[in-house]
Specification:
With about 230 residues, this protein is of the alpha/beta class. The chain contains 11 helices and 7 strands. The strands form 2 sheets. Strands 2-1-3-4-5 form a 5-stranded parallel beta sheet, sandwiched between helices. Strands 6-7 form a two-stranded antiparallel ribbon. Helix 1 links the parallel strand 1 and strand 2. Helix 9 packs across helix 10. The longest helix has 15 residues.
Length: about 230
């Protein structure tokens, strides 16, 4: 993995802490966007731990994520932030982060667990951050997922299922809400996943967030951690 932070000293401290655990191998450290991109070109990390703000300027660590993601799709990105405000959380996942770690809310041991879980293919966020994502979806008045030709990818019924998944309903609750059978709901989800090229409910929620126009501003008081497997059952 590689580490990018606001100063070289900060990089060293994070890297040294991670290196105490045998499962982590830090292959590079960067304090600027230029150094970070050069590192990506030279090494092939499995995970990149990037501070939202690097030495160059405020929030440039966040800004570089959309540039990294298409060039290195196999690298799992974790964004470190000082405070996880709603707009920043939504922007991070929209930019391609697989996890977000708030320094002010968690201990270093949680960072180690965050990196490990993201490396294993999970999404790392606490319940308050998930609430921000769900609120971002809920505030979007009409979900329209369209293809390159401008046509809707999903049917009206499939869009209704997507909205209910984003609200946290399980298959049985969705079936009751839409007066469908559980089997029909599963079939809808299968077709939705196939059309959007995703494989889990978590990816579906993040996909809808990335296509929403307005970030959420409400705050949940629940700070308990929530780790979501990327292969969560449909």
């Amino acid at each position: 993995m590689l580490v990018a932070d606001a100063t070289q000293m900060a990089c060293d401290l994070v890297a040294q802490g991670l290196s105490k655990h045998s499962q982590f191998k830090v292959v590079g450290r960067a304090a600027t966007v230029k150094e970070l991109l050069e590192l990506f070109a030279r090494v092939q990390p499995q995970v990149a731990l990037i501070s939202a703000t690097l030495q160059d300027r405020s929030l440039n660590g966040l800004a570089v994520l959309p540039q990294i993601r298409p060039q290195y799709p196999g690298v799992r990105l974790v964004l470190m932030v000082d405070h996880a405000d709603p707009e920043l959380v939504v922007a991070a996942f929209r930019a391609g982060a697989r996890g977000i770690f708030s320094r002010s809310e968690s201990h270093f041991s949680a960072l180690c667990k965050c990196v490990s879980c993201v490396h294993q293919g999970q999404i790392w966020a606490n319940s308050r951050q998930l609430e921000y994502l769900l609120e971002a979806v809920a505030q979007t008045p009409s979900l329209r997922l369209v293809g390159a030709d401008g046509r809707n990818l999903l049917s009206k019924r499939e869009e209704e299922v997507v909205h209910l998944v984003a609200e946290g309903l399980v298959n049985h609750e969705i079936a009751e809400h839409l007066h469908l059978s559980d089997h029909t709901v599963k079939n809808h989800l299968f077709h939705i996943f196939d059309k959007l090229g995703i494989s889990s409910r978590v990816e579906l929620v993040l996909y809808t967030v990335s296509h929403s126009k307005r970030p959420a501003m409400s705050v949940s008081r629940d700070d308990s951690p929530a780790v979501m497997p990327d292969n969560q059952t449909r």
